[in-house]
Amino acid sequence: MSKGSAMRRTAYTVIGVLILCVMLFPVYWMVNASLQPSGNTLTAGFLPLHPTFSGYKRALDEQGGNLVTSMIIAAGTVVLSLAIATPCAYALSQFRSRWVSIGLLAILISQMIPGIVIANALYTAYERIGLLNSIPGLIIANCASGIPFAILILRSFMLSLPPSLVEAARVDGAGLFRAFVAIVLPISKNSLITAGLFSFLFSWSDFLFALTLTTKGGVRPVTLGIYQYLGTQVQNWNAVMATAVLSAVPAIVLLVAAQKYIAAGAIGGAVK
């Protein structure tokens, strides 16, 4: 490697590290503020020289139930989204018809509809059928974002599946459903994990549906809990920031654990 190439590589590395530091600084400040004594975060020190976990204790006492509610909603969204999106994606990858292009266009258009429009429509429907302030109602609402995205991710991968695999299973006596479950699903593991993770993140970070479709305090995801926290806890920012840190932990853990599957699932359909 020449001296000029080494210098360029070092310069790119330094620039990349600086950009990463700028992007991660809000996360650091959130953790730092969560360890500070109660008070305004603007007066907090750059380092938690006298850390306290009182904010985390208060966050778990007051927001622990909301974290559990968010986890149940996110898990339900993942299960329902994949249960609907997986067979749809496989069908769209196998059919050779002009109607497939129309269906894909409709799926793309559904992703462009503003969330507030969907939320208002769902509010009217939920009020009539009794799904307001319910976990199933929020799961169905979050699937409005999870299912279309999952279909696009899964279809992209399933287009690369050799038809001979399913045909061999059919020759051996397997029906369509058994061939789908025994052959297609195991091969599609990476794309399933990728689609499921994004469905989880969509649901976990949802605020609009939670705000619109819950009018009582019985069902309250953590995003809504943080929002309502701000009105009464402006002098206890350590508890607010501790709640934000706790709410970020599941997403971070899942992203770190599934990063290799995400990379494989995202590019799996690009190579045939």
Query: Strand fraction band?
Result: under 5%
Instruction: Quickly name the level 1 CATH class of the largest domain.
Output: Mainly Alpha
Alpha-carbon distance between the two ends:
34 Å
Question: CATH topology of the largest domain, anyone?
Answer: MetI-like fold
| Helix-strand sequence | HHHHHHHHHHHH
Quick synopsis:
With about 270 residues, the protein is an all-alpha fold. It is built from twelve helices and no strands.
Characterise the protein shown here.
The protein is mainly alpha-helical and 272 residues long. Helix 8 (189-204) packs across helix 12 (259-267) and helix 10 runs antiparallel to helix 11. Residues 267-272 have low confidence and may be disordered. The chain has helices spanning 3-34, 54-94, 98-112, 115-129, 135-158, 163-171, 176-187, 189-204, 208-213, 222-232, 237-257, 259-267. The protein is globular. The chain is built from 12 helices and no strands. The two termini are 34 Å apart. It has 2 domains: 1-51, no CATH class; 57-268, Orthogonal Bundle (MetI-like fold). 78% of the residues lie in helices and 0% in strands.
Question: What's the arrangement of secondary structure elements?
Answer:
Layout: H1 3-34, H2 54-94, H3 98-112, H4 115-129, H5 135-158, H6 163-171, H7 176-187, H8 189-204, H9 208-213, H10 222-232, H11 237-257, H12 259-267
Helix pairs in contact: 1-11, 2-5, 2-8, 2-10, 2-11, 3-5, 5-8, 6-7, 8-12, 10-11
Transmembrane segments: 12-31, 67-92, 99-123, 135-154, 175-202, 237-258
Membrane topology: Multi-pass membrane protein
Domain ABC transmembrane type-1: 67-258
